[in-house]
Amino acid sequence: MDLFLQEGSRVWLKEDGVNQPCTISSVSGGVVIFTTDYGEVYTYKLKTLSRQRVCVMSQESRDGVEDMASLQELHDGAILHTLHLRYTQQLIYTYIGSILVAVNPCVCVSGVYDEAAVELYSAGGRGQLPPHIYALANQTYRALWQRHDNQCVLISGESGSGKTESTKLILRFLSAMSQRSQPTSSHVENAILESSPVLEAFGNARTAHNSNSSRFGKFIQLHFSYRGNILSGQITHYLLEKNRVVRQNPGERNYHIFYTLLAGASTEQREALCLSPPESYQYLNQSGCITDSTINDKLTFQHVLGGLSTLQLSESCIRNVLQVLSAVLLTGNIQFLTAGGAAVSTNTVLGQLANMLCVDSSLLSEVLTQKSMMLRGELISTPLTIEQAEDSRDSLAMALYSRLFDWVLRCLNKRIHGDSSFRSICILDIFGFENFEVNRFEQFNINYANEKLQEYFNKHIFCLEQLEYSKEGLEWENVNWNDNGECLDLIEMRLGLLALLNEESHFPKATDATLLEKLHSQHLRNQFYVKPRMATHQFGVKHYAGEVLYEVSGFLEKNRDTFRDDILNLLKESRSDFVYELFERIPCQNVESLRNSKHGRLTVSLQFKNSLHSLMSTLSTCNPFFVRCIKPNNNKMPGQFDWQLVLQQLRYSGMLETVRIRRRGFPIRLSFQDFYSRYRVLLRGSALLDDMKGWCLQLFHRYNSAESNWRIGKTKVFLRECLEAVLEKQRDSEILKAVTLIQAHVLGYLQRRQFHRLLQSIVVLQKSFRALLCRRRYLRVRWASVVFQKVLKGQRVRRMYKQLLEDQRENWRREEERRREEDKRREEAQRISQVEEILRLEREMELLRRRKEETERSLGAESQERLRRLRDAIDAQASRAAQHFLHVLNFHEIDECVRSIESTLPDTHAHSQIHTQTHAQAAGREEEDVDEGLGADDSPNPSETGQSDGQRTSGIRSGDESEEEEELYANERMPPPTQPHAANHSLPSSGGPAYCPLQSEEGEELIPPDEDSEDEDVAMTTRQSSSHANQWPSQQRVSIATSTSSGAQYYSSEASMEGSDDDFDRCDSDGDSLGRRDSVYSCVTLPYFHSFLYLKGGVLSVWRRRWCVLRDEMLLWFRAKQEALKQGWLRKKGGGSSTLSRRNWKRRWFVLRQNSLLYYTNDKEDQLKGALDLRSAREVYECPDRVNGIDVVMPDRTYHLTAESAEDASHWFSVLSQVHGSTEQEISEMNAEQANPQNAVGSLDVGMIDSVCACDAPDRPFSFVLQFSQRLLECRADSAEEMHHWITLLQRSKGDARVQGQEFLMRGWLYKEWSGGVAKQLRRRWFVLTHASLDEYSSSQSNAPKRSSLLLTSLCTITHTHAPSGDWAVAVYGRRQEYVLVFKLQSEAQRWAAAVQDVIDSKPPVETHTQQLLLNIKENSLNSELVEQIYLRNPLLRYSKHSLRTPLLALPYGPVERRGHRRGSLHSEALKMFDSLLQLEGVANPVSAIQGLLQTAWELRPLREELVCQLLKQTSGDAAPLSNWQIMACVCCNFSPASRSLLTHLKFHLKRWVRARECPEDTEVARLAAFSYEALRRVCGRARECVSSQQELSAILRFQDMNTHIHCHGGGVCKISINSHTTAGEVVQRLLRGLQMEDSRNMFSLFEVRGQAERALDSRTAVADVLAKFERRTAEGAAVQTDCRLYFKLYCHLDTHSVHPTSMEFAFMFEQAHEAVIQGRYPAPVETLQILAALRIQYLLGDYNSQNAWPDLEQLFPVSRLRSRLQACTSLSRSNSAHRKRSSFLEGTLRRSLRGRARAEESQEEAWFEQEVCVLRGNVQEKWARLEGMSQQDSMLKYMNIIREWKGYGCSLFNVQCADGVYPEDLWLAVGQENVGVYKRGEAWPLEVLSYELILSFGAPQPNTLCISTQERHLLFLTEQVVDIARLMKTYISLIVKRRVSTCQSISNQGNHW
Fold first, then answer.
1. ∠ CA 866-867-869 to the nearest 5 degrees?
2. Cα separation of 547 and 530, whole Å?
3. Which of 887, 1118, 1603, 1758 is 20 to 30 Å from the Cα of 1799, by its Cα?
4. Which one is predicted more confidently, 773 or 506?
5. How far, in Å, CA of 477 to CA of 465, rounded?
6. How far is CA 70 from CA 73, 265, 1134, 1421, in A?
7. Rounded to 5 degrees, what angle do the CA atoms 854, 860, 866 make?
């Protein structure tokens, strides 16, 4: 100890469990003073020190190392000291093997990242230069070619550790390498580099720990070419922190882009964007931090503009981006005040915001302060509280910014999009771990993402690497590491934090408190969950980086991400195309869509979880490189090293364990073949090609004889980075030498070739010139010679011809004479010889017969036996002679004859005959090498069909065999390809089966299906063969069934579950089934393995021994090994001794073992009833006479069986047929490898396994764990070899299981609805969902044929309904077919529907050729000549007289519903619509047809744009009829296209025709085009409520306005003219001007009156819509005539006392007051009502005169009130008399008399009423007489004075009923100018008066229910006039707000004046 305890010695001092580097400052007096490198001083007594506390520091640790894997002293202190030592030397990078550790310098380091550094590290390999981020980037870049797979770089660390800067440096280096690999710079590199400032400005902000913190995660993919340059890229972002836009914590800032905009905008931009200083914005000044000294906002703004320009954004687009940013800031400055709900108090800011968003300011104010909902077809608005209005304002700001961020990123991806054929490098820069003072929902998701990345790091660095060492047999001691899997289970498991959060988010009444309560109750006992003792609104999670407490407030609201539909619809109606584009693709919440959740759209956390899982799946297919960023201090001060903070980061990130495993491990792992392929250049002379392992050893011994840096495994080579660097350097040297040599040879070759080409060119030139001269001389000579020869040869030939002709004639004559003589002699000789021969043969036959008879009489038994054998030998020789004769025949000529005969046959049999002939020829060629004699067996055996026992080594067949046999025996009732006995042909002994025609008894030829035929052909052949099955004799049928079963391929149990494919082809042939047979998986043969394992996990709480089977990517486990091939319940007929028992059907338990079919009374198998030996059965066939029937024909009897379902019957028949026709060896293989999933205890999809890891627990040897996303399954094998074999088979990542080269998303057995016959049936099929399609297979086997496939595009639709049977049906509609899938569980149906919907949503929108042409026209709209060329060259854009085949636009698939009835698809409706356009041409009165066409488009919204496109087509060209232009005008008056691009083209089209029409005959077309353009301009932004009426359509066609009548009180009628766009407000203004009432003190409105009901029209309502509703009601209810009128009346009484009595306004007040009186809405005594009636008569008739005719009393007095009073009195008397009446035995007898008394009472009541009316008339007359001399004006004035005496005058009264029992039942709700009063109906004094100041909100929580909320309570009223009441209250409140705002503005103006 004393030796190294000297002054100045370097030692390690263990203090608080950490070894700290120290220098001994002093050793004296028994006291030692230590000074640490971190500035701390420790003093110890010498005697208290020990070697455990103090140890000497090695020289390596003193100097520092570049790779911490080479440290001698392995502890936390050594790693920390190394980082600190290098940090003080400004060396911020350090290696841990292949992992790079980067310490943030917090300052720009000069000279480290310049071009020289890029040049340096691009040339040098790893280990040759100091650690650097460029070295890792270079290694990643070169790994694209070294490791032949994609690469990824994962950059992790805390917030502020430098992840973003590291990402930019890697991108800079890769861009530089890309530019060097090509001569010119690509736009992709420039766009990626220039976009970095844009992404930082929009996505980064200042936080408490980082001044440039990324508030979103980005995943950058760079696709490289094989040359090394960047071809394309893509950037995906995760979880933008939208909440930061509206609020920030103290000391933080909003996103950088806002501050840069305000600092760098020019003066013109400030004025245009209404910009102010940052301190004036609520979204910027609330945190108290506006400026940041580390950021130059003005310069950053210039960089952002440059980056946007790099993205090829136009000036207008950039201006739109800045407008949206200004709109976000202005949104925060909108303030609210309370006036019966929230109201906007800052109208100036509201107007500026409306201008920025190009929307109407009044509509914007409405959506911010009111919530709209549809109630009984009416749109009702409920006022919001101030808090709710502020939430709506903030949600608008967050939505604007998030959509703008997505748009910028989409533009960037569009700019860098391109080819991705080669490999890619991915860079993940995601938010770091965060732990603030207040952690909210954003921090929870950020830390969850970091947990997933830490799990990926642990899995790659520790789990997979150590498992690799164990598998390869390397001596290895496992390194323990901190597993964060349990923490992830807490977050992700079934009832984890995310699940509970999403569940609560779907409950409307759930709050953050209820969420916290559920979290506490569910996870209180979880060791990773923290429940704070003091805080009541927090919960904590123990993350890998430490414990974090989260503030639960706001979790649910942020997770729901509510954005109201009314705000969304307003933004979609914006006049700005840019704003519309931002929100175009966002669906409304009320749109029905099947999602993963039960109640609507996905929550934020669930979306983020799905994105993370997708990210992990992508990363799992790449080779990772890791960069660990370290934050040296929390203050971001350069040069400060907080060793405790750094030590904490090192510990939770597992750096010590990483150093250990990198120090001891071998990160470079290559297979022998890959290692040899890469480094064979190093041992070219001694390469051992037969022994790869020996070659690798030889190479290692040459370059590193010691085994310290390499190991040899079973199949791979393991080496460290240092040795790899040496080998790579030597390899580069050797390759450089070879390249130099090759270059020398190539250059020499090129020079020589160039010389030879030049020399050859000269020779060719000379040769050609000389040849030209010689040819000219030759041609002259040849011409002369030819002329001379021609004359001479002509003479000679003519002489020779004459001589030869004479000689030929003489020879012909002589030859004819000689032939005749010879024929005569030959015929005579032949006749004589035949007669002699016949006579001789007759004599010999007679002689032989006699000798035979004599000899047989004398022979004994033995002689006769020898004679018989001799005779058999002779027959055999004759047979061989006949066989030889058949071989020597010329069948080619016979075939030609057959072809000529077949050509004359009908076409219906040509296809089958050609195939039969082809198979016959193939059989003939194969029979040339085979001679089995004439007695060969007809039935084929397995060896003859190419399937011998030796070939069947396992139950898994290759795809070729199964396909061959399935095609051969396509129908099990089809006879096999046997030969008739009369033909005597032999079967081939090898090769494929050959077909030969089989003749029935009637001679009809039956042809089996061809191997390449479609399903339809197979089904047709099957029906043909089935029709002749009953015509065959019984012996032939038995042989047919036997041969069919023996030749048919057997299937596995899982495949047989679905029945044979042949039965399916017969009963379930899909129209869309594919002709080819595709494999379920594109990979090679899938693994199969089975053994016993012990399982524990999930529902298994203890270890259970199960028989496990891995088959077809499914892991099945059973309680015991499955010995039976098939078992189940069947019904069996007969079996008893009596006649009745033989006819009964009994349910038996059947078990098929080996070839025995046993049946028992029950499934316990204790009472055996009988057994059948299937090998001895004659036939097994399906009975067509019974449903699900199977017959087994035994030698003694026939067994009739019936299954419970068609699937079960098909399965039983398939298995029984296989066993019946199989050998013992085949049956044993089937029994060994069958595993019926129906009998399995459980099953797992191997593709869903996340990881398979071996366990090292000593108490559980040979155990391993299967880890899934939501569960764990622990398994234990019997031996280590068996365990490793299971791990190897199950170690398949999710991305490895692929279907047709694509990763599958889901797969499983589903029931598909099939319409077969009368009733619908369910077929159980195996479905596989991929990223491209939904595929249907007959079974789950790897070689199962694909029955059909539904291609998924963005046009596919899904419907989710509840089937009548109680199941859940999901219908997926494609282009040509549909799948109806039936589920038992709703959750399973929603899971599949959500997965399919996600695939549909991920597809890009489908664009038709029409849309592309319209886009082309838009891009070239300024070039009129080019536009005309486009119209001329494309018939789609021109007028056509023929019907369409397909719609012009891409319409969704699936059926549509109109008026509650299911109609055809949108495609069919679109085609019908176009046919209607063609039929309307030339129609005289097309109004009704046009209205029907518009109604169809109105009800089916997708058809609106289709109709517009069809009209664009039919109005193009001079041949377009006028009717199409008329329809165009009608369409433009009703609706505009929702697509802005189509709307723009429509306007362009109309302008084009307006400008182009100059001829007189085209004036009407030009007028229609101009009219349509104007109508389109006015209809944009205004939604019509219904289709135009016929009156309106007629006016449009005539270019005229409509005339309508407006009624007033007193019988007045005004006739006004309106058009399609005239609103109710415009009509009111015209009436006010016409009546000279512009200065009226009260508010008037237009009312819709239907009978006794009336409704005030909104000022924006189109009057034409009201008239259309009148017309529709008249047409629908013609039997009930209802008077529908428009009235002009007072709406709001604002000033009832200041109106001049002589004005027209006073007259309206008088008439409306009198209307209220006679309707009983004026509470006054009868005496007062009589006076009012007398004044009314005086006003109408003047002074009293008995001669005057009285008006109707109902027009003077509320007669209904009188009648109700009489009825009340009468009912009271009746109740009293009934109460006094006694019950007696005569009650039943007297009932009839009581009925008569009731009728008498009714007549008495009527008499009383008449009497009261007479008395009333007399009283009114008396009072009228007293008014003599009163003028009309005075009468009206006195009348109004009496009315004004009631305090409630001026209020609108509504009949309501009390719903909560607070008031009497029948009430009046009086809505006035200042308050709302509650009156008992008929009484004058209110029960309660509510001022608008006290009303917080009002609305309709339920239909016909009005709720008025105050601070103390909620008042509920029942009424059908909820909409009218709410609208009137809203009007009064808006007037109050305007009055207050104007008062405030006047006060502020006076203050400014002073």
1. 65
2. 8
3. 1758
4. 773
5. 12
6. 9, 55, 85, 69
7. 95
Alpha helices in 1639-1758 (DSSP H): 1663-1676, 1704-1718, 1726-1741
Neighbours of 1583 (CB within 10 A): 12
The vertex-551 CA angle with 613 and 504, nearest 5°, equals: 60
The predicted pLDDT at position 879 comes to 65
Nearest alpha carbon to residue 1013 among 1067, 1076, 1071: 1076
Q: State yes or no: pLDDT of 728 exceeds 60.
A: yes
Beta bridge partners of 1117: 1108, 1242
Confidence of residue 231 (pLDDT cuts 50, 70, 90): confident
CB atoms within 10 A of CB 238: 19
1335-1347: burial string, b at 16+ Cβ within 10 Å, e else: bbbbbbbbbbbbb
pLDDT tens string 103-141: 998 888 877 888 888 888 887 666 678 899 998 899 888
- How does pLDDT run across 795-822, given as a tens digit for each residue? 888 888 888 988 888 888 888 888 888 8
Region 92-101 average pLDDT: 86
3-class DSSP state of 1788:
coil
**Strand pairing report for 1602-1607 and 1684-1692:** parallel
38 or 1259, greater pLDDT: 38
Q: Which amino acid is residue 783, in one-letter code?
A: W
| CA 930/CA 887 separation, integer angstroms | 11
- Residue 1590 falls in which region: left (phi positive, over 0), alpha (psi -120 to 50) or beta: alpha
Pairing of strands 1346-1351, 1333-1337: antiparallel
1954 has pLDDT over 90: no
Rounded CA separation 662/98 (Å): 8
Residue 1076 — very low, low, confident or very high, per pLDDT cuts 50/70/90? very low
Distance CA 329, CA 1429 (A): 47
- Looking at residues 1298-1302, what average pLDDT do you find? 50
Helix H or strand E segment including 547: strand 546-551
Gap between the Cα atoms of 1357 and 1354, Å rounded: 8
pLDDT of residue 975: 38
Question: What b-and-e string marks burial along 463-486, b requiring 16 or more CB atoms within 10 Å of the CB?
Answer: bebbbbbbbbebebeebebebbbe
Separation between Cα atoms, residue 252 and residue 209, nearest integer Å: 9
For position 255, what pLDDT does the model report? 92
Integer Rg of the chain from CA = 49
Whether this prediction's pTM lies above 0.70 is answered by no
Identify the three-state secondary structure at position 455: helix
> Angle, to 10 degrees, between the axis of helix 604-620 and the axis of helix 441-458?
20
In this predicted structure, the answer to whether residue 178 has a pLDDT above a threshold of 60 is yes
Helix, strand, or coil here: 838?
helix
- Residue 545, φ and ψ in degrees, nearest 5: -95, 5
Confidence of residue 1559 (pLDDT cuts 50, 70, 90): very low
Spatial distance between the Cα atoms of 253 and 278, rounded to a whole number of angstroms? 11
Give the closest residue to 1040 by CA, choosing from 982, 987, 965, 979.
979
pLDDT tens across 1045-1075, in order? Answer: 333 333 333 333 333 333 333 333 333 333 3
CB atoms within 10 A of CB 133: 27
3-state SS assignment for residue 1008: coil
Residue 243 has pLDDT above 80, yes or no: yes
Angstrom distance (rounded) from CA 342 to CA 324? 25
Query: Which H/E stretch holds residue 848?
Result: helix 721-858
**Given this model, what pLDDT does residue 1137 score?**
42
C-beta of residue 206 within 8 angstroms of C-beta of residue 160:
no
Tell me how far apart the alpha carbons of residues 715 and 1418 are, in angstroms, rounded to a whole number: 62
